[in-house]
Request: fold
Amino acid sequence: MKVVVVANFDSMSAEVAKMVFGQITRKPNSVLGLATGSTPLGVYELLVEYHARGADFSRLTTFNLDEYVGLGPDHPQSYHWYMNENLFSKVNINPERTFIPDGLAPDLEAECQRYEKLIQQAGGIDLQLLGIGTNGHIGFNEPGTEFGIETHVVDLAESTIRDNARFFESIDEVPTRAISMGIKTIMQAKEVILMASGGSKADAVYAAVRGPVTTAVPASVLQLHPFATVVVDQAAASRL
Ligand code: F6R
Reply:
């Protein structure tokens, strides 16, 4: 596991955007795994700038980590909406090659299997972007999730519901379930980048990078990945 400590959110975003751009340049038909939340927003902004300066996204395929159960693409807090708003509508990506789990699927188990199969059919993920929850989750794999699990339906942890309430009018509106790529799915990506910014992530980053590999801290599994890079700003790295 390579750890890169940078000054702040902007330098974290610049570092990761550069790595993603490098991947797209080396392999224009890359399969990218994408995250949502506050952490990758600067990366997406910079990728939009790379596109404005000529970067071509037309041959990419993307798979998002997760989606809330019960929120459709028209819901402003859905991850479909987020991706459209922050990246997809601003670059020349082929919408038919962007995949996000369907949180409205009538049969959620079947949706998980369909999603996992789509990833396999695309040849697996070349580069997976990850944020980290304050409780150490990656995707929505909450503490306690077995490492061998593929895309699945999860009950969100109380702490995740509290953390994500900032995006909703009230905490009661935060969905309590989501579909998430599993840890096994994430670990099968050829390369992963974990990003973290801010002091609120310092404990989780410390546990993930320096602590034992344990299901109690899902991100700690990345210590076992052959090509994992952790890009953290000084505040998030303050305990390392
Ligand atoms: C988002 C995701 C989550 C977030 C994590 C950090 O798709 O899977 O694991 O990366 O909750 O969220 P932020 O970046 O909002 O602090």
In short: Strands lie at 2-6, 31-34, 61-64, 66-68, 98-99, 127-130, 152-155, 177-180, 191-196, 228-233. Residues 13 and 40 are 7 Å apart (CA to CA).
